[in-house]
Specification:
Blueprint (H helix, E strand, L loop, with lengths): L3 H4 L2 E3 L8 H8 L6 E8 H6 L14 E6 L3 H14 L3 E6 L4 H5 L10 H12 L6 E6 L8 H13 L4 E5 L10 H4 L7 H10 L4 E5 L5 H7 L5 E4 L1 H5 L7 H4 L10 H14 L8 H4 L12 H11 L9 H31 L1
Parallel strand pairs: 1-2, 1-8, 2-3, 3-4, 4-5, 5-6, 6-7, 7-8
Length: 345
């Protein structure tokens, strides 16, 4: 198990319906050190559900389970399950604003119940050795003053939590959809920076609106870690430079083609009866974002990865299409150069 505190310098956010185990395996091909989070899993699903909600690939480490719930006993029970399965961390969701989450008494509404979160932290830490962390907002509704925020942090930290990942937006629990809650309330990075200054012994990571590694490096001057979500999902090759830029690891950066080969091998290894290549391919649509052939890549995967008879060699055939487009573009550029040279001569 790696030093999880170092991996928290850069992490990929838990994203419902997105960061499943196939997505995480893909992202791990791009960065060895980035901390990956599961989708949020509720205590009810783990305790009463029939599916294996804790399944993951060993290659995903370091990987953290994000847990949704507010009953301290249930949270502790699920933390034990996570530790037994080998997760590197368990994280409490105190940030999701959706109605599903609110009605279940967990997520962002718990910002108003710091004592309940503290009880869960204490109960979980009494049962497991892996870190118990909290992902929260800077506030909710009209509880959006710094004093409200710092009180929440202080109460939960006093129960033993020393790591907080803070989405630098408050959540409106009335009148805004989860999508709007990601975009409408303004970002307030200075409030998170202020928290770190006030509590220097706590590990504080910042989340929300960070779209480049340069922006991440700037944030690391003020906080301990950066969590990126939708930008990594839309443009995953961003992760390929994280190890060198954020972790100072000089390992070779994989090419997009190398990643495609690895992911095709991964698809070929799947033996679940209901598995389809699209379960993997949907997470890779952005691999050629901004590159020649990127649109061809997305179109081929979308057209041939779904339906009753998906292409079993989906990624390799898509790669051939991209290679052909890039070769054509190179030839076109070479012709332009030759034409220009002849005109000058």
């Amino acid at each position: 198990m790696s030093d999880i505190s170092l991996n928290r310098r850069f992490s990929v956010a838990p994203m419902l319906d997105w960061t499943d185990r196939h997505c995480r395996f893909f992202l791990r091909q791009l960065s060895a050190h980035t901390l990956l989070y599961t989708e949020m899993v509720t205590t009810g699903a783990l305790i009463f559900g029939k599916g294996d909600y804790l399944a993951y690939n060993q290659e995903e480490h370091p990987v953290a389970l994000q847990l949704g719930g507010s009953n301290a006993d249930d949270m502790a029970r699920c933390a034990v399950m996570a530790q037994e399965r080998g997760y590197d961390e368990v994280n409490i969701n105190v940030g999701c604003p959706s109605d599903r989450v609110k009605n279940g008494s967990f997520g962002a509404c718990l910002m108003a119940q710091p004592d309940a979160v503290a009880r869960s932290v204490k109960a979980m830490q009494a049962k497991v050795d892996i870190p118990v962390t909290v992902k929260c907002r800077i506030g909710i509704d009209d509880m959006d003053e710094y004093e409200d925020f710092s009180r929440f942090i202080e109460v939960v930290a006093s129960a033993g939590c020393d790591t907080f990942i803070v989405h630098a937006r408050k959540a409106w629990l009335q009148g805004l959809s989860p999508k709007e809650n990601r975009e409408v309330p303004p970002l307030n990075y200075p409030r998170v920076h202020q928290l770190k200054q006030a509590y220097p012994d706590l590990h504080i990571s910042i989340n929300g609106g960070i779209k480049s590694l340069e922006a991440a490096k700037q944030q690391l001057d003020c906080v301990d870690g950066v969590m990126v979500g939708r930008e990594v999902y839309a443009n995953p090759y961003l992760l390929s430079e994280v190890d060198s830029t954020i972790f100072n690891d000089g390992r070779a950066i994989p090419t997009r083609a190398q990643v495609v080969h690895r992911m095709q091998d991964y698809i070929n290894r799947q033996d679940e009866p209901y598995f389809k290549p699209w379960h993997v391919a949907r997470h890779i649509l952005g691999l050629y974002q901004g590159q020649t052939g990127g649109r061809i890549w997305r179109r081929y995967l979308s057209q041939h990865g779904t339906g009753k008879n998906p292409d079993p060699n989906l990624l390799m055939n898509a790669l051939e299409q991209v290679d052909a487009a890039q070769q054509q573009q190179q030839e076109f550029e070479a012709q332009k150069v030759a034409k220009t040279t002849n005109q000058v001569s």
